[in-house]
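Worked example 3 (structure in, sequence out).
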């Protein structure tokens, strides 16, 4: 166990976040997301909820200040509705760790899947919220 590091981190997740560079993306995927079929670098975090992981990850990384959209979620498929509480909950957590909270941008389902294929890694969580997937683009640590 490391002091000051959330016990939610597996060694693999902590190493992955450490290895990511500026502009690399980490996708926190809900339990419904087809992670293994989209990206070879899947880290299992079964049973963990995305807000809890955001709370663990965001003290350790900066979001990309050079990108207008460092936080991305999936848009609802035609005929579906988004639950506004999901985004609200994520933004509450993000605001605890990010001084200037960027807005969350949305991508159409298949555009989101294309982005997932290029992500540095996908964390497959136990999050049950529909459209609960979120991509974080890593930035540069301020001097």
């Amino acid at each position: 166990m490391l002091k000051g590091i959330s016990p939610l981190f597996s060694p693999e997740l902590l190493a992955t976040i450490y290895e990511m560079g500026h502009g690399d993306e980490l996708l926190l995927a809900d339990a419904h997301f087809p992670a293994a079929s989209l990206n070879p670098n899947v880290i299992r975090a079964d049973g963990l909820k995305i807000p809890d992981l955001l709370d663990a990850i965001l003290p350790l990384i900066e979001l990309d200040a050079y990108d207008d959209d460092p936080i991305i979620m999936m848009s609802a498929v035609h005929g579906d509705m988004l639950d506004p509480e999901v985004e609200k909950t994520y933004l509450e957590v993000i605001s605890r760790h990010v001084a200037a909270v960027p807005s969350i941008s949305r991508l159409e389902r298949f555009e989101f899947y294309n982005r997932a294929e290029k992500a540095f890694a996908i964390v497959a969580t136990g999050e049950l919220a529909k459209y609960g997937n979120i991509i974080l683009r890593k930035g540069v640590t301020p001097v």
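Notes: The beta strands are 25-29, 42-45, 71-74, 105-107, 121-125, 134-137. DSSP finds five helices and six strands in the chain.
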